[in-house]
Structure formats: C-alpha cells, structure tokens
C-alpha cells in the first residue's frame, strides 16, 4: 500500500514541550481496527474530541500522553483529526477528492 495512504505527518502550529524536547510534528499511521476499540466509528467520522483523544495516541509517533492531548492547540487537534478521518475513507472516495 502506498505510504501516502498509510502514514501522514502533521506539522504542529504550537509545538509540544516534552521535558527539554520540542515536538514540532506528529506522524500518524493508518489505524487497524483494534486501535479504534472503545470508540464509535460515527464519533470518529464526526471528529468527536473524546474519540480523537482516545485514538490519536494509539496511532501517533511520538505517542502522545493524555496530558499532551488535553493541552493541544485546537487547530492542531483539528489537523490531526482530519487525517484520522481521511484514513478511514475508501480508496475510491480518496481518488475523487481534490489534492493540495
């Protein structure tokens, strides 16, 4: 499968500080069904904050903590959430979407 369909890097508007390390980007990988456990697909498709706060740490590199998720800039949470939703779309749907 094409890496573009299985992995996406999101540049953060507001970097996350982890100790003395500044995290400026998050790599998300396409979730397997197990990473979606405890959530509802509809909640993920709606970009529900609670669902995203559950799923994103499971598929992110570096793995984000609950505290880091709670302190994310809303614009960064939205950008990450859009990528999660995009991972759940069928290839045929993605083919019809405009590219950046």
Automatic annotation (TrEMBL):
This is Phage tail assembly protein. The lineage of its organism: Bacteria, Pseudomonadati, Pseudomonadota, Gammaproteobacteria, Enterobacterales. Pfam families: Phage_TAC_7. It comes from Citrobacter cronae.
């Amino acid at each position: 499968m094409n890496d573009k369909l299985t992995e996406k890097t999101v540049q953060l508007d507001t970097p996350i500080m982890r100790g003395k390390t500044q995290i400026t980007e998050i790599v998300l990988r396409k979730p397997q069904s197990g990473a979606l456990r405890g959530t509802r697909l509809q909640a993920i498709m709606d970009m529900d904050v609670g669902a995203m706060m559950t799923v994103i740490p499971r598929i992110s590199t570096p793995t984000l903590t609950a505290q880091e998720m709670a302190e994310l800039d809303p614009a960064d949470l939205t950008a990450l959430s859009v990528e999660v939703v995009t991972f759940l779309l069928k290839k045929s749907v993605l083919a019809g979407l405009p590219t950046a």
